[in-house]
Amino acid sequence: MSSTLERRAVPVGGLLVGEGPAVVIGGRVSLRARRGQAGAGSVAIEGATLVEPYSADDLPAIAEHADAVVVGASWTRDIPLVRAAAGLGLPVVVERRREASVAEWLELADYCAAEGDGQVILCEGGRPDLGLMRAAKVASGRPVLADVSADVGLSAAAVAAGADGLIVGSPDPALAQGTGAGTASPGAGTGSAGPGPGADRLVAEEAVVLVGALLRDEAPATLPECRQAIDRLDAALATLLERRAELAGIVQRIKPVGGFAGRDLGRERALVARMAVRAPALGEARLAPIMNAVIEAGLHLAEERAAE
């Protein structure tokens, strides 16, 4: 079992994996899927370029063009190639072999860290086992990626399970034809804007913003980072407020006496008290006017819709 318990972020291209918000990577390049028929620099990926070699002959080009090298699930037992890939000096993305246990996965990650400069990211691909992914992250302290290309609808669950980044879709035609570790599932999942990798990316980014804002701990160090973190929280808050207003509208249609005349002030006070338990720094005195404004906004919206 890995002894790397100190959490370390790993820079990959223009992204930082393992610290701050989760990241979205637009796929990966598999020279193995292409059987070595294309160069490592032939496909550019938004944010970061992750490349899986076909053979040791690909490694010099990967070192020149890629932001990280992928140790793919199908060849984790090819120790000479694993050793050579880990020794490139690039961050190493270690994908779990489907039948591998957490201990075996982390043992391989530790081996790659020892052969390279220690910058290792775990990756759970295919049909990801999110519980196992989370267990590996907790046990090792290493950043983890979830490849949700096969089902982008898993994006929110992956972020909730602790994924530090999502790999979505694939700009690589070889992977898109299903010869690689994962294939894109156009329009999969809820909230998709329509078929295609762009829509899949939007689903993943929404998961990062909404779920990540609620569940990921962040420690921004600069004013821009603080504002970006607040923007993510505000986006999640707006989504929750919209959902609350919709549910409140249903309540108004069901209640015998709806609208402002039907307000239950006792229930509202109890609501504020429960919220104060979760937000003790704000307390009931500060939360009460906030929730009064939220409730009244929902009532006004319900009345406007009833009058249409």
Give an overview in words.
The protein is built from ten helices and ten strands. Mean pLDDT is 85; it is low at 40-44 and 173-195. It is elongated and about 75 Å long. With 308 residues, it is α/β, with parallel strands linked by helices. It has two domains: 10-215, Aldolase class I (TIM Barrel, Alpha-Beta Barrel); 223-307. Helix 2 packs across helix 3 (102-115). The longest helix is centred in the C-terminal third of the chain and has 32 residues, at 223-254. The protein starts with 9 loop residues before the first strand and ends with a helix. The strands form two sheets. An eight-stranded parallel beta sheet has the order 3-10-9-8-7-6-5-4. A two-stranded antiparallel sheet has the order 1-2. The chain has helices at residues 59-65, 79-86, 102-115, 130-140, 155-160, 173-176, 197-215, 223-254, 265-278, 283-307; strands at 10-12, 15-17, 23-25, 29-30, 50-52, 68-71, 92-95, 120-124, 144-147, 165-167.
Features:
alpha/beta; two-stranded antiparallel ribbon; TIM Barrel; 2 domains; transferase; 308 residues; 8-stranded parallel β-sheet; 10 helices
CATH topology assignment of the largest domain:
TIM Barrel
- The number of distinct helices, counting runs of at least 4 residues, comes to 10
Distance between the termini: 63 Å
Oligomer: single chain
Strand order in the largest sheet: 3-10-9-8-7-6-5-4
Radius of gyration: 23 Å
CATH superfamily of the largest domain: Aldolase class I
Derived structural class: alpha/beta
Shape: elongated
Count of domains: 2
Q: What would the average pLDDT be, to the nearest integer?
A: 85
Helix fraction bin: 40-55%
Q: CATH class of the largest domain, anyone?
A: Alpha Beta
Region (Disordered): 177-197
Protein name: Chorismate mutase type II
GO molecular function: chorismate mutase activity; transferase activity
Domain Chorismate mutase: 217-306
